């Protein structure tokens, strides 16, 4: 018997893989005893959660090991998804859904006197991402596994994820996140695959044995990257892929140095410094520049990951010349773009490949996804910082640039302006490395994340690159996983799906189309409404629990949840709420449709205006919620600490989804998709994926307003003066005056001055220009909502036509157009 057969045999003899209820209960009690050291009677909810997680993990490991075995025997191309962020959300519920054992497990723990929902609530969320980009990576690895594509997610195991937000006196307060406090049952440490990463120092030339000039990098320090692996199960398939996150540790050699030099404290200090590398996730503020540790983090995880891929390639007997045949590496934004230079370094310096061969391998390996057009968000690194950390990489980037610019000069004879625009080095002031340029030149494919965004990439940010190599450019509209965002988040609605159209939708979201023929069925509509109302009741409970504010589930739930940012225009919604309030106060008997406005989202700690926007939201809530004249017809709620977990509770309870960014600014948005598939209607600008959602669901079932991206451009060119617009609109003018005169700040006219001044003097995101259109559109929303039958029909059609926005569709497009990978089905051992 081979070792594999032997262990498979032992596995089958044990209880740890069986999905039967009895063996599950036995295993649970076993785990409670052997991993937590507790009996059922004295264990806490945390203990129960841990024991349950280990019990489920055991079942998952069987698929994981089978998958690894299947991949080892295969030479098929593997996707490496490189992302500095994976905003995974809790694993337990999702794993139960994907393994198809949610109901059985609920029963099993129920028979032990426990409530599964209570246990699911115990899991600390790994908040290893800021927002859209990190959550997209999480949806994508779920889809990769579900489509049975061989794939690895590579990232950083931050000890502290995104901060935990509380609201104190109406202000955001950032608290450190400590997600590892009780341990993480889903990860396995793999010290045997640790990688040494060099940092700093200098380069020197030498002559090799064949008398060739070579360059050698003499680093100032090394750190060790230790991988922690978590299984990523696909939905109802045997595939369980791996998420491999790197944690920084000190090298062993420090310990030896202590013996030699006797400098114990010094050595320990060095150790602490090394381990700082993966301590904390950087919040994304307006200026990502200049954070030395951030570049170090990026290089660290990319170097570890490429090294790991080479280990895998070698393990399969592959040669380095075939690297690109084995791996398709996707760069999730520019954060891992240093990988282009690192792979070149490995190929040229370590494997001594000729430059052109190395470059051909490199460009065939990488694909680059851009997530933002905001110029201030494009990563640039000052040259001296770069040289200090990565001296060899800077030399290689210069060389890449020289060769690239030669091609540019040949393509555009005499066009030196074009050369400057395309250069990997920004020479306009202080010199910088432009990471988006490095990523674009080093990749065979570049893609935007929605149609409009990809078009604007080609027109603006990367226009010169597009002129040079148009065939490189793709558009792949984002998507979200229906497993987490429907099956797990909205069980009531999914039960109605099951009864009406079966279960196939979870894997083929287009099947939701079959709901369309029930859109005019009164009994179906009645159930649809009852489910939404139930979800709203649950959300109302959560709101009162988290904020103390009582809201009426019968009122319209009007929701905006996302990072707080000027371009997303939470303050546009605020202006409109104040206008509604003003109307109500002017005529207390006015027919006002009761609405509950729900906001949630984090502001980057260094982004003062965004934090002030939160203060403004809580301030208007403090006035409106307690004004007896309003009699509860308007409520404004700020839910603290938006996260994957809170999102799962908010989307299913929303009636109206606010997607009101200035057109041309939101690359795609993905929350917009989660709302639509949970039956909320959208009020939105023609921005990002809103455009495609509107196209899919039909403009009759979508509330659009505001300027298009082209109109925004035109308006700016024509010379935009916000004061003119505000003066000309009495309603808007009155609203601005109310804030300015201190109604929401107890007479303090300074507090919100930065927001008001911004609006009057610059209005960079053109709130004033879009205000009237937004306000009118909200009246249209009111009319639609009053007609319950019409609204329900629209809601059903939104869900029925949301199939395009499954991340399975996105991933299939990446697989076909960019990665050229095909599924590998996994037999269980
Ligand atoms: C876009 N995050 C959304 C989403 O494609 C889009 C930036 C710097 C440092 C760390 N994180 C970031 C982002 O840029 C980001 O989340 N971008 C978002 O990516 C997925 O749907 O429109 O704003």
What is the structure about, briefly put?
One of its GO terms (cellular component) is cytoplasm. The chain is an alpha/beta fold.
CATH arch. level architecture of the domain at 75-89 and 125-375: 3-Layer(aba) Sandwich
Low-confidence stretches: none
CATH superfamily of the domain at 75-89 and 125-375: Glycogen Phosphorylase B
Provide the helix percentage: 40-55%
Q: What small molecules does this complex bind?
A: N-[oxo(pyridin-2-ylamino)acetyl]-beta-D-glucopyranosylamine
Q: What can be said about the biggest beta sheet?
A: 10 strands, mixed
Rounded to the nearest angstrom, the distance between the terminal CA atoms is: 14 Å
Large-scale geometry: globular
Strand content: 5-15%
Number of strands: 23
Structural class: alpha/beta
Q: Taking Cα atoms only, what radius of gyration do you get, to the nearest Å? A: 28 Å
CATH classification, class level of the domain at 75-89 and 125-375 = Alpha Beta
Total of DSSP H or I helical runs spanning 4+ residues: 34
CATH topology of the domain at 75-89 and 125-375: Rossmann fold
GO molecular function: glycogen phosphorylase activity; pyridoxal phosphate binding
Organism: Pararobbsia alpina
Protein name: Alpha-1,4 glucan phosphorylase
Modified residues (N6-(pyridoxal phosphate)lysine): 674
């Amino acid at each position: 018997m081979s070792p594999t057969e032997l262990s498979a045999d032992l596995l089958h003899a044990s209880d740890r893989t069986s999905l039967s209820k009895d063996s599950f209960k036995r295993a649970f009690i076993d785990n409670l005893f052997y991993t937590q050291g507790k009996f059922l009677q004295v264990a806490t909810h945390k203990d129960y959660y841990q024991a349950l997680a280990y019990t489920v993990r055991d079942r998952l490991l069987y698929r994981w090991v089978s998958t690894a075995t299947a991949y080892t025997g295969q030479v098929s191309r593997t996707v490496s998804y490189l992302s500095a962020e994976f905003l995974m959300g809790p694993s337990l519920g999702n794993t139960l859904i994907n393994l198809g054992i949610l109901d059985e497990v609920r029963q099993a723990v129920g028979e032990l006197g426990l409530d599964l929902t209570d246990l699911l609530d115990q899991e600390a969320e790994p908040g290893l991402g800021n927002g859209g980009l990190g959550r997209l990576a999480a949806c994508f690895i779920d889809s990769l596994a579900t489509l049975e594509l061989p794939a690895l997610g590579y990232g950083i195991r931050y000890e502290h994820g995104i901060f935990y937000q509380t609201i104190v006196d109406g202000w955001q307060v950032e608290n450190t996140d400590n997600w590892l406090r009780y341990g993480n049952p889903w990860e396995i440490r793999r010290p045997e695959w640790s990688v040494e990463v060099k940092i700093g120092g200098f380069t020197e030339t030498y002559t090799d044995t064949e008398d060739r000039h070579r360059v050698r990098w003499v680093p100032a320090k090394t750190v060790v990257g230790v991988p922690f692996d978590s299984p990523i199960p696909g939905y109802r398939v045997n595939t369980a892929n791996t998420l491999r996150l790197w944690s920084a540790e000190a090298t062993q050699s420090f310990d030896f140095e202590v013996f030699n030099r006797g400098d114990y404290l010094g050595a320990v200090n060095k150790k602490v410094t090394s381990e700082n590398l993966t301590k904390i996730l950087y919040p994304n503020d307006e200026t990502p520049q200049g954070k030395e540790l951030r570049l170090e983090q990026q290089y660290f995880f990319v170097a570890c990951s490429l090294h790991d891929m080479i280990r895998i390639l070698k393990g399969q007997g592959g040669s380095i010349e075939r690297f690109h045949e084995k791996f398709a590496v996707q760069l999730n934004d520019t954060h891992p773009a240093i990988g282009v230079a690192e792979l070149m370094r490995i190929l040229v310096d370590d494997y001594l490949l000729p430059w052109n061969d190395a470059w051909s391998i490199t460009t065939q390996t990488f694909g680059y996804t851009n997530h933002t057009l905001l110029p201030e968000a494009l990563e640039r690194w000052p040259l001296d910082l770069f040289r200090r950390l990565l001296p060899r990489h800077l030399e290689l980037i210069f060389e890449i640039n020289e060769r690239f610019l030669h091609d540019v000069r040949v393509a555009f004879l005499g066009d030196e302006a074009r050369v400057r625009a395309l250069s990997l080095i920004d020479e306009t002031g202080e010199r910088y490395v432009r990471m988006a340029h490095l990523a674009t030149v080093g990749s065979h494919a570049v893609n935007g994340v929605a149609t409009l965004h990809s078009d604007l990439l080609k027109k603006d940010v990367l226009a010169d690159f597009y002129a040079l190599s148009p065939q490189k450019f793709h558009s792949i509209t984002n998507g979200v996983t229906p497993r987490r965002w429907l099956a797990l988040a909205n069980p009531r609605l999914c039960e109605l799906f099951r009864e009406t159209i079966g279960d196939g939708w979870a894997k083929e979201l287009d099947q939701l189309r079959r709901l369309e023929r029930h859109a005019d069925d009164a009994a179906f509509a009645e159930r649809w409404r009852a489910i939404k109302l139930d979800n709203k009741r649950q959300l109302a409970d959560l709101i009162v629990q988290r904020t103390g504010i009582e809201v009426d589930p019968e009122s319209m739930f009007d929701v905006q949840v996302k990072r707080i940012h000027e371009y997303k225009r939470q303050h546009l919604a605020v202006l409109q709420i104040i206008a509604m309030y003003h109307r109500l106060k002017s005529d207390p008997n006015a027919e006002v449709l009761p609405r509950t406005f729900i906001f949630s989202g984090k502001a980057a700690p260094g982004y003062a205006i965004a934090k002030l926007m939160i203060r403004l939201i809580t301030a208007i809530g403090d006035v409106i919620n307690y004004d007896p004249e309003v009699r509860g017809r308007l409520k404004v709620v700020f839910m603290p600490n938006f996260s994957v977990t809170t999102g799962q509770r908010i989307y299913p309870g929303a009636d109206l989804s606010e997607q009101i960014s200035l057109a041309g600014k939101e690359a795609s948005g993905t929350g917009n998709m989660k709302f639509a598939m949970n039956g909320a209607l959208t009020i939105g600008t023609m921005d990002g994926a809103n455009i495609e959602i509107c196209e899919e669901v039909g403009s009759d079932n979508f509330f659009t307003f505001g300027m298009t991206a082209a109109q925004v451009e035109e308006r700016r060119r024509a010379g935009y003066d916000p004061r003119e617009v505000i003066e000309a609109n009495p309603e808007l003018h009155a609203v601005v005056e109310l804030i300015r005169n201190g109604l929401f700040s107890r007479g303090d006219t300074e507090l919100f001055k930065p927001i008001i001044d911004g609006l009057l003097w610059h209005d960079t995101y053109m709130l004033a220009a879009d205000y009237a259109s937004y306000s009118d559109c909200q009246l249209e929303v009111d009319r639609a909502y009053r007609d319950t039958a019409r609204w329900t029909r629209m809601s059903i059609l939104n869900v029925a036509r949301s199939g395009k926005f499954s991340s399975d569709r996105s991933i299939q497009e990446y697989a076909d157009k960019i990665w050229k990978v095909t599924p590998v089905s996994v037999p269980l051992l």
